[in-house]
Amino acid sequence: FTVLTYAANLRYACFVFPKVQLRITGITMNKKPEDEPYIRYVKGYEQYRNILFKETLEDFNTYMKSKKFYYTSYIVFLVTAKNMSEWVDGKLQYWVGGLAYLGTACSEWRVGMSEDRPTSYYGAYVFAHELAHNLGCQHDGDGPDDWVKGHIGSADCPWDDGYLMSYKMQDERQYQFSYCCQREVRNLYNRPEFKCLRERYTTKTIKRSSKLPGRMTTLSNYCQRVYMYDEGMHADPTYGVKDCKLNCTAKTTYWRLSVVDCTSCGKKKVSEGLLDYGHYKQKYRAGW
Predict the structure, then answer these.
(1) Which of 39, 83, 102, 192 counts the highest number of beta carbons within 10 A?
(2) 129 known member of a binding site
(3) Is 279 annotated as ligand-binding?
(4) Could you tell me whether strands 83-88 and 91-93 are parallel, antiparallel, or unpaired per DSSP bridges?
């Protein structure tokens, strides 16, 4: 998790005022179902680890309020290897990558969640994206939301510019936050209801990692973890890595993905980040 956080922090390095860096004050590892009573499994789909993400996040928030650390943390975040899912027109959709309530740091809804299968690190983008929602950032191109008092919104930052708060992953801007997102964080940071962002409740922190995902996994492991239900999935050695992308290949299909942070992309070139991963696009509760 510290490696995943380090990868996310690279994306937050573009913030100047206020400077934004994620600091871990505690980690809870769940080892058995009894440890996570808030998980809402999809009946009949347990073997595929599908969970209802809206209901799970709401129950997670309620459950975490019984913990003392909830009130001394700016954000309490759930990272899961399960398949975040929802029913849409009678069909189970599971392309969702994350969910967070907009502008809720320091509040009674200070939670978010995202997917990341262990040792893949494919979730760095979604993790950073959802935390930005907690800090107030809308999707680029969206206006202010009534949920957040004094919210400015991001209508003046086009979606097609392809920054991290859109899904238009086309160039290096996908690893950076737009001006609008940075402005919104500054806006909330200066408001009294977000004063916890200017305070430090604990001096206890988890030691930061100095390692990035590309040094912690292999290309084939990456493919196998992301597409764990596709038999024979592996990185195509004949394609290799081109333009910081690889082919994840199985018997009857393949997927082209961006490689994880710090993967060699050829001569004197190293990747900065993420894979092209689907993310929920419809507003829910706080809008995100």
Answers:
(1) 102
(2) yes
(3) no
(4) antiparallel
